[in-house]
Amino acid sequence: MSERWPAALRLDQAAEYCGLSVDTFKEVCTVAPIEFTKSSHGRRWLRTSLDEWLDSLDPDAARSAPTRRRLAERIGGGGV
Question: Does the pTM exceed 0.85?
Answer without folding.
Answer: no
